[in-house]
């Protein structure tokens, strides 16, 4: 057991508009990304209500898979924002995924659609083969928060968004660990190889 396997590093940058996290999963890229596609919805992250695939395509030259997904979410905004806008805090976010199977890299970029007139949250996550061990997977998450039009309240909303996202990021890694471990125990690769040979 190596400490890097369970080590997660969180960094906050100044000005406080960025959140970044890295984590090493002690499983290969194929297993981690296969589990990732099934992550939502899950009971540990109830803020994600629904996920729909809008389109998918495979680039014939590069072999890369591109997918666009629509998320229906419950936004975890402060109570004073809810009182100000007097509306349900549920809405949509869009995610674009590019999966490069040949180079073992998956990149997903998402941003909120609802509330984007005053609050913008952009997220980029990456799963790639670990440079130190091809049987591990390096995960990176970066989030950027931008608030405008709320005067002195902008900083308060940015802080609340960062705090909420940090907790959700921690929960998300826990969910992924569980999904990956369960998938690994099914010996799914052997079943996949049998199916492919039929």
Q: How is this structure best described in words?
A:
It is a single chain. The protein is α+β, with helices and mostly antiparallel strands and 198 residues long. The protein has one domain: START domain (Alpha-D-Glucose-1,6-Bisphosphate, Chain A, domain 4, 2-Layer Sandwich), CATH 3.30.530. It contains 4 helices and 8 strands; from the N terminus they run ββαββαββββαα. The protein has an 8-stranded antiparallel beta sheet with strand order 1-2-8-7-6-5-4-3. Helix 1 crosses helix 3. The longest helix has 33 residues, at 153-185. The chain is elongated and about 55 Å long. This is Slowmo. Residues 16-188 form the PRELI/MSF1 domain.
CATH architecture: 2-Layer Sandwich
Strand content: 35-45%
Largest sheet: 8 strands, antiparallel
Give the H and E element order: EEHEEHEEEEHH
| CATH top level label | Alpha Beta
Total strands: the figure is 8
Mean pLDDT: 85
Strands of the largest sheet, in order across it? 1-2-8-7-6-5-4-3
Please give the alpha-carbon distance between the first and last residues.
Answer: 38 Å
């Amino acid at each position: 057991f190596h400490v890097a396997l369970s080590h997660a590093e969180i960094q906050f940058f100044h000005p406080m508009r960025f959140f970044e996290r890295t984590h090493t999963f002690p499983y290969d890229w194929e297993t981690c990304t296969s589990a990732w596609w099934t992550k939502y919805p899950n009971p540990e992250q109830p803020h994600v209500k629904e996920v729909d695939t809008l389109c998918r395509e495979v680039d014939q030259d590069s072999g890369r898979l591109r997918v666009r997904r629509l998320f229906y979410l419950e936004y975890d905004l402060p109570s004073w924002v809810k009182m100000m806008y007097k509306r349900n805090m549920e809405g949509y976010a869009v995610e674009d995924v590019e999966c490069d199977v040949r180079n073992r890299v998956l990149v997903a970029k998402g941003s909120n659609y609802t509330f984007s007139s005053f609050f913008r949250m952009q997220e980029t996550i990456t799963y790639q083969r670990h440079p130190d061990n091809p049987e591990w997977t390096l995960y990176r998450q970066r989030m950027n928060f931008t608030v405008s039009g709320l005067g002195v309240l902008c900083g308060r909303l940015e802080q609340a968004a960062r705090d909420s996202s940090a907790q959700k990021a921690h929960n998300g890694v826990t969910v992924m660990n569980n999904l990956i471990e369960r998938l690994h125990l099914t010996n799914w690769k052997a079943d996949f190889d049998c199916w492919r040979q039929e």
